[in-house]
Design brief:
five-stranded mixed barrel, elongated, signal, SH3 type barrels, five-stranded antiparallel β-sheet, cell projection, single chain, Type Iii Antifreeze Protein Isoform Hplc 12, alpha+beta, Flagella basal body P-ring formation protein FlgA, disordered N terminus
Length: about 270
Protein backbone atom coordinates (compact mmCIF):
# COMPACT_ATOMS: atom_id res chain seq x y z
CA UNK A 1 0.00 0.00 0.00
CA UNK A 2 1.30 3.40 -0.89
CA UNK A 3 2.00 5.37 2.25
CA UNK A 4 0.71 8.45 0.62
CA UNK A 5 -2.65 6.75 0.31
CA UNK A 6 -2.95 6.00 4.05
CA UNK A 7 -5.63 7.80 6.00
CA UNK A 8 -4.41 10.89 7.82
CA UNK A 9 -4.79 9.22 11.27
CA UNK A 10 -2.23 6.48 10.49
CA UNK A 11 1.47 6.96 10.25
CA UNK A 12 3.71 5.12 7.97
CA UNK A 13 4.18 2.30 10.51
CA UNK A 14 0.40 1.73 10.59
CA UNK A 15 0.13 2.99 14.22
CA UNK A 16 -2.91 4.93 15.41
CA UNK A 17 -2.15 8.59 15.83
CA UNK A 18 -3.60 10.52 18.78
CA UNK A 19 -6.15 12.98 17.57
CA UNK A 20 -5.49 16.55 18.61
CA UNK A 21 -8.09 19.22 19.21
CA UNK A 22 -7.24 22.83 18.82
CA UNK A 23 -9.37 25.86 19.72
CA UNK A 24 -9.28 29.30 18.39
CA UNK A 25 -7.60 31.94 20.61
CA UNK A 26 -10.91 33.60 21.59
CA UNK A 27 -12.43 30.27 22.64
CA UNK A 28 -9.41 29.39 24.77
CA UNK A 29 -9.68 32.78 26.50
CA UNK A 30 -13.33 32.09 27.26
CA UNK A 31 -12.50 28.73 28.80
CA UNK A 32 -9.78 30.29 30.99
CA UNK A 33 -12.27 32.87 32.25
CA UNK A 34 -14.77 30.15 33.11
CA UNK A 35 -12.11 28.26 35.03
CA UNK A 36 -11.07 31.40 36.90
CA UNK A 37 -14.67 32.20 37.76
CA UNK A 38 -15.23 28.66 39.02
CA UNK A 39 -12.08 28.90 41.14
CA UNK A 40 -13.18 32.22 42.64
CA UNK A 41 -16.64 30.85 43.49
CA UNK A 42 -15.04 27.86 45.20
CA UNK A 43 -12.70 30.10 47.19
CA UNK A 44 -15.62 32.30 48.28
CA UNK A 45 -17.57 29.27 49.47
CA UNK A 46 -14.59 28.05 51.45
CA UNK A 47 -14.14 31.45 53.11
CA UNK A 48 -17.85 31.77 53.92
CA UNK A 49 -18.02 28.22 55.24
CA UNK A 50 -14.97 28.83 57.39
CA UNK A 51 -16.48 32.02 58.79
CA UNK A 52 -19.77 30.25 59.58
CA UNK A 53 -17.88 27.40 61.22
CA UNK A 54 -15.99 29.89 63.36
CA UNK A 55 -19.25 31.52 64.45
CA UNK A 56 -20.89 28.16 65.17
CA UNK A 57 -17.85 27.02 67.14
CA UNK A 58 -17.82 30.24 69.20
CA UNK A 59 -21.54 29.95 69.90
CA UNK A 60 -21.06 26.33 70.95
CA UNK A 61 -18.27 27.29 73.36
CA UNK A 62 -20.39 30.06 74.90
CA UNK A 63 -23.34 27.68 75.21
CA UNK A 64 -21.14 25.04 76.85
CA UNK A 65 -19.77 27.62 79.33
CA UNK A 66 -23.30 28.73 80.27
CA UNK A 67 -24.37 25.13 80.77
CA UNK A 68 -21.28 24.46 82.91
CA UNK A 69 -22.15 27.51 85.07
CA UNK A 70 -25.70 26.28 85.63
CA UNK A 71 -24.52 22.77 86.48
CA UNK A 72 -22.00 24.12 89.00
CA UNK A 73 -24.64 26.39 90.57
CA UNK A 74 -27.17 23.57 90.76
CA UNK A 75 -24.65 21.29 92.46
CA UNK A 76 -23.83 23.98 95.04
CA UNK A 77 -27.53 24.46 95.86
CA UNK A 78 -28.16 20.72 96.12
CA UNK A 79 -25.23 20.38 98.53
CA UNK A 80 -26.52 23.34 100.56
CA UNK A 81 -29.85 21.59 101.23
CA UNK A 82 -28.47 18.07 101.28
CA UNK A 83 -29.22 17.46 104.96
CA UNK A 84 -32.66 19.08 104.92
CA UNK A 85 -35.70 17.02 105.85
CA UNK A 86 -37.87 19.32 103.73
CA UNK A 87 -38.78 18.65 100.12
CA UNK A 88 -36.68 20.96 97.95
CA UNK A 89 -37.32 22.09 94.37
CA UNK A 90 -34.65 24.16 92.57
CA UNK A 91 -35.34 26.08 89.37
CA UNK A 92 -32.29 27.70 87.75
CA UNK A 93 -32.72 31.00 85.91
CA UNK A 94 -31.82 31.14 82.21
CA UNK A 95 -28.47 32.76 81.49
CA UNK A 96 -28.62 35.64 79.01
CA UNK A 97 -27.37 34.39 75.64
CA UNK A 98 -25.71 37.77 75.04
CA UNK A 99 -23.49 37.32 78.08
CA UNK A 100 -19.91 36.58 77.05
CA UNK A 101 -18.65 33.70 79.18
CA UNK A 102 -15.02 32.68 78.63
CA UNK A 103 -14.20 28.98 78.56
CA UNK A 104 -12.62 27.92 81.87
CA UNK A 105 -9.67 25.53 81.85
CA UNK A 106 -10.50 24.24 85.32
CA UNK A 107 -13.63 22.94 87.09
CA UNK A 108 -15.86 25.83 88.17
CA UNK A 109 -16.24 26.65 91.87
CA UNK A 110 -19.72 27.68 93.06
CA UNK A 111 -20.95 29.08 96.39
CA UNK A 112 -24.63 29.53 97.29
CA UNK A 113 -25.50 32.82 99.01
CA UNK A 114 -28.57 31.64 100.90
CA UNK A 115 -30.32 33.87 103.48
CA UNK A 116 -29.89 32.74 107.06
CA UNK A 117 -33.52 31.63 107.54
CA UNK A 118 -33.07 28.74 105.09
CA UNK A 119 -36.61 29.16 103.80
CA UNK A 120 -35.63 29.28 100.13
CA UNK A 121 -36.96 31.84 97.70
CA UNK A 122 -34.75 33.83 95.35
CA UNK A 123 -31.08 32.93 95.85
CA UNK A 124 -27.83 33.86 94.14
CA UNK A 125 -24.91 31.54 93.41
CA UNK A 126 -21.37 32.86 92.92
CA UNK A 127 -19.55 30.94 90.16
CA UNK A 128 -15.79 31.34 89.79
CA UNK A 129 -13.20 30.24 87.23
CA UNK A 130 -9.77 29.88 88.86
CA UNK A 131 -7.56 29.19 85.85
CA UNK A 132 -4.84 31.48 84.46
CA UNK A 133 -7.51 33.98 83.38
CA UNK A 134 -9.89 33.99 86.37
CA UNK A 135 -13.41 35.38 86.24
CA UNK A 136 -16.54 35.51 88.40
CA UNK A 137 -20.19 35.37 87.40
CA UNK A 138 -23.47 35.16 89.34
CA UNK A 139 -26.36 32.81 88.63
CA UNK A 140 -29.79 33.17 90.25
CA UNK A 141 -32.27 30.45 91.12
CA UNK A 142 -35.65 30.03 92.77
CA UNK A 143 -35.69 27.51 95.61
CA UNK A 144 -38.98 26.12 96.90
CA UNK A 145 -38.99 24.56 100.35
CA UNK A 146 -42.00 22.36 101.08
CA UNK A 147 -42.74 21.63 104.74
CA UNK A 148 -45.76 20.43 106.75
CA UNK A 149 -47.28 23.47 108.47
CA UNK A 150 -50.35 24.02 110.59
CA UNK A 151 -53.32 25.64 108.85
CA UNK A 152 -56.78 26.49 110.11
CA UNK A 153 -59.30 23.71 109.50
CA UNK A 154 -62.13 26.24 109.48
CA UNK A 155 -62.75 29.97 109.76
CA UNK A 156 -61.86 31.24 113.24
CA UNK A 157 -62.75 34.51 114.93
CA UNK A 158 -60.34 36.83 116.71
CA UNK A 159 -59.77 35.75 120.30
CA UNK A 160 -60.77 32.15 119.62
CA UNK A 161 -58.88 29.63 121.73
CA UNK A 162 -57.65 27.00 119.31
CA UNK A 163 -58.85 23.44 119.87
CA UNK A 164 -57.37 20.26 118.27
CA UNK A 165 -60.14 20.06 115.67
CA UNK A 166 -59.43 23.66 114.57
CA UNK A 167 -56.03 22.76 113.08
CA UNK A 168 -54.81 20.49 110.29
CA UNK A 169 -51.35 19.90 108.79
CA UNK A 170 -50.63 20.67 105.13
CA UNK A 171 -47.43 20.65 103.04
CA UNK A 172 -46.79 24.17 101.73
CA UNK A 173 -43.97 26.10 100.06
CA UNK A 174 -42.74 28.15 103.02
CA UNK A 175 -40.69 30.41 100.74
CA UNK A 176 -44.03 32.01 99.81
CA UNK A 177 -45.17 32.49 103.42
CA UNK A 178 -44.52 35.38 105.78
CA UNK A 179 -43.82 34.95 109.43
CA UNK A 180 -42.66 31.94 111.40
CA UNK A 181 -44.84 28.99 110.50
CA UNK A 182 -45.89 26.45 113.09
CA UNK A 183 -44.84 22.89 112.45
CA UNK A 184 -46.69 21.02 115.17
CA UNK A 185 -50.37 21.56 115.88
CA UNK A 186 -49.76 20.56 119.54
CA UNK A 187 -47.87 23.84 120.01
CA UNK A 188 -50.90 25.78 118.82
CA UNK A 189 -53.74 24.17 120.74
CA UNK A 190 -54.74 26.34 123.69
CA UNK A 191 -53.41 29.56 122.12
CA UNK A 192 -55.69 32.44 121.20
CA UNK A 193 -55.86 34.18 117.83
CA UNK A 194 -54.88 37.83 117.59
CA UNK A 195 -57.04 38.23 114.46
CA UNK A 196 -59.69 36.37 112.48
CA UNK A 197 -58.53 33.82 109.90
CA UNK A 198 -60.19 32.07 106.97
CA UNK A 199 -60.28 28.34 106.35
CA UNK A 200 -56.89 27.03 105.17
CA UNK A 201 -54.87 29.98 106.49
CA UNK A 202 -51.29 29.03 107.52
CA UNK A 203 -50.93 29.81 111.22
CA UNK A 204 -47.82 31.78 112.16
CA UNK A 205 -46.32 32.64 115.51
CA UNK A 206 -47.27 36.31 115.30
CA UNK A 207 -50.96 35.36 114.92
CA UNK A 208 -51.04 33.59 118.27
CA UNK A 209 -51.02 34.72 121.84
CA UNK A 210 -51.67 33.22 125.22
CA UNK A 211 -55.42 33.12 125.87
CA UNK A 212 -57.03 35.67 128.15
CA UNK A 213 -57.93 33.80 131.33
CA UNK A 214 -59.24 36.80 133.23
CA UNK A 215 -61.16 39.69 131.72
CA UNK A 216 -61.53 43.17 133.14
CA UNK A 217 -64.43 43.29 135.58
CA UNK A 218 -64.37 39.55 136.25
CA UNK A 219 -64.68 38.35 139.79
CA UNK A 220 -61.58 36.33 140.65
CA UNK A 221 -60.28 34.29 143.54
CA UNK A 222 -57.41 36.26 145.01
CA UNK A 223 -54.86 34.01 146.74
CA UNK A 224 -52.29 35.36 149.15
CA UNK A 225 -49.65 32.84 150.26
CA UNK A 226 -46.84 33.35 152.81
CA UNK A 227 -44.97 30.98 155.13
CA UNK A 228 -47.01 27.99 154.00
CA UNK A 229 -50.27 29.76 154.79
CA UNK A 230 -52.73 30.65 151.99
CA UNK A 231 -55.56 33.11 152.39
CA UNK A 232 -58.29 33.44 149.80
CA UNK A 233 -60.22 36.59 149.08
CA UNK A 234 -62.63 37.71 146.41
CA UNK A 235 -61.37 40.35 144.05
CA UNK A 236 -62.23 42.19 140.86
CA UNK A 237 -59.85 42.21 137.89
CA UNK A 238 -59.08 45.74 136.70
CA UNK A 239 -57.72 44.60 133.29
CA UNK A 240 -57.55 41.55 131.06
CA UNK A 241 -54.93 38.98 131.98
CA UNK A 242 -53.24 36.07 130.19
CA UNK A 243 -51.67 33.11 131.93
CA UNK A 244 -48.62 34.32 133.85
CA UNK A 245 -49.44 37.98 133.33
CA UNK A 246 -49.42 40.38 136.27
CA UNK A 247 -52.55 42.53 136.55
CA UNK A 248 -54.11 44.88 139.13
CA UNK A 249 -56.89 43.33 141.20
CA UNK A 250 -59.10 45.12 143.79
CA UNK A 251 -59.72 43.23 147.00
CA UNK A 252 -63.49 43.32 147.43
CA UNK A 253 -63.22 43.21 151.24
CA UNK A 254 -60.61 45.90 151.83
CA UNK A 255 -61.03 47.82 148.56
CA UNK A 256 -57.26 47.69 148.36
CA UNK A 257 -55.71 47.28 144.88
CA UNK A 258 -52.92 44.70 144.69
CA UNK A 259 -50.80 43.22 141.89
CA UNK A 260 -51.60 39.59 141.17
CA UNK A 261 -50.40 37.00 138.65
CA UNK A 262 -53.04 35.19 136.61
CA UNK A 263 -52.69 31.46 137.25
CA UNK A 264 -55.78 30.05 135.60
CA UNK A 265 -59.28 31.04 134.62
CA UNK A 266 -60.72 33.22 137.42
CA UNK A 267 -57.68 32.77 139.71
CA UNK A 268 -54.88 35.25 140.50
CA UNK A 269 -52.08 35.08 143.07
CA UNK A 270 -51.00 38.16 145.03
CA UNK A 271 -47.43 39.35 144.44
CA UNK A 272 -45.55 40.42 147.57
Amino acid sequence: MNSSALPPFFDRNLTLMKPTISFPVKQRHKIDCLRLRSWLVSLTLVLLTGNCWTQITAQTLVSDSAQAMQQAAMQALEEHWQGSTDRIEIQMSTIDARLQIPVCGMPLAATANQPGNGNGGRVTVRVECQDASPWTRYVSANVKVFRPVAVSARALARGSVIQPHDVTMEELDISQLRGQTMGLSENIVGKALRRSVNHGTPLTLDMLTAPVLVKRGDTVVLIASRGGISIRHTGTALQDGEAGQQIPVRNNSSERVVQAVVREIGVAEVVF
